[in-house]
Write a structure and sequence with these properties.
The chain has 120 residues and is mostly helical. The protein is built from five helices and no strands. The chain is elongated and about 55 Å long. The protein starts with a helix and ends with a helix.
């Protein structure tokens, strides 16, 4: 596999995995944010911000922290596997980071009675 094709694959993986996660969570997030924000426009804005974060954070981590795919293009199976493993790991870490930041932000605005009911 050429270095260009492998580089494109390394960029496509975080985008596709993030899109699947965003589509899966979109409806639930929209309802939660509608309840917290009060209006559909506000909920839509924050929902879209989260989706952008879920796409950008994994891609940024992959671009910054994974190995260059040049060795993988040289047909070394171990190198190819390592690059793909790192790409998938940083993609998952990026999605978890984006979701964790969103959970933290939403939890700060939950009414106190919801927090007490959840802990009992």
């Amino acid at each position: 596999m050429s270095a260009i094709v492998f580089s494109l694959l390394q960029l496509a993986i975080p985008v596709l995995v993030s899109l699947v996660a965003a589509v899966y969570l979109r409806e639930v997030i929209q309802r939660l944010l509608l309840d917290l924000c009060g209006t559909g426009d506000r909920a839509q804005f924050w929902s879209r911000c989260l989706i952008v974060a879920m796409l950008a954070v994994p891609l940024m981590l992959v671009l910054l922290l994974t190995d260059a795919p040049v060795c993988a293009a040289a047909e070394y199976a171990a190198c190819t596997a390592r690059v793909l493993r790192h790409t998938l790991a940083w993609t998952a870490g990026g999605i978890l980071l984006a979701m964790g930041l969103m959970i933290y932000a939403v939890a700060r605005y939950l009414p106190p009675e919801i927090e007490r009911n959840a802990s009992s």
